Amino acid sequence: MKKGRVWKYGDDVNTDVIFPGKYTYTPMEPEEMASHALEDLDSDFASQVRENDVIVGGRNFGCGSSREQAASCLKYAGVQAVVAQSFARIFFRNAVNQGLPVIISEEAPDRLEKGEEVSIDFQRNEIITQRARIPFAPLPDSVQKILDAGGLVPYTKKKIGRDKS
To answer: H or E element: which one contains 55?
Structure first.
């Protein structure tokens, strides 16, 4: 299990603050995309995020436009997973397609604190802190297979390669 720190935000975190709209049509390498992650919500995030950190939100995380860069920039920034009470449908799908785990948990946002160190056990479906174990519902098997492969493109390539043999 990987340990990371919690970055905590509230309800209705929209795709415009996850990845600013002004960059939507600007071609960028992954590192540059990561440097703009959450810049309109938390100016410290991109410069201070570390590999395996976890974003925690409230309800309707990822609402707004359907830009896939919102999920991509978080993955490129090294975020291990996004935990929220609920997700906007398109963001949820874009995150899965990019290989970024999205965890729905009604209680985790109220029980986790900004800066707290956490681990996520995907086998036992638990978020683990020094003071608690917070269960979450397992992702559907089809979604977990895409995440395990690193996203939809690697999953599809692997599946096609297997189908050819």
So the answer is: strand 54-56
Q: Which residue has the tokens 């189908």?
A: 163
103-145: pLDDT as tens digits: 999 999 999 999 999 999 999 999 999 999 999 999 999 999 9
Q: Give me the domain span that covers residue 112.
A: 3-164
CATH number of residue 133's parent domain: 3.20.19.10
For strands 102-104 and 117-121, give the pairing.
unpaired
Question: pLDDT by residue (tens digit) across 41-69?
Answer: 999 999 999 999 999 999 999 999 888 99
Tell me the residue length of the chain.
165
Q: Does an H or E element contain 20, and which?
A: none
Instruction: Provide CB contacts within 8 A for 163, sequence distance 6+.
Output: none
Among 140, 98, 106, 134, CA closest to 119: 134
The Cα–Cα gap between 44 and 41 comes to 9
| Number of domains present in the structure of the chain | 1
Neighbours of 136 (CB within 10 A): 20
Whole-angstrom Cα distance, residue 66 to residue 86? 16
Is the separation of the CB atoms in 1 and 120 below 8 Å?
yes
Indicate the DSSP class of residue 102: E
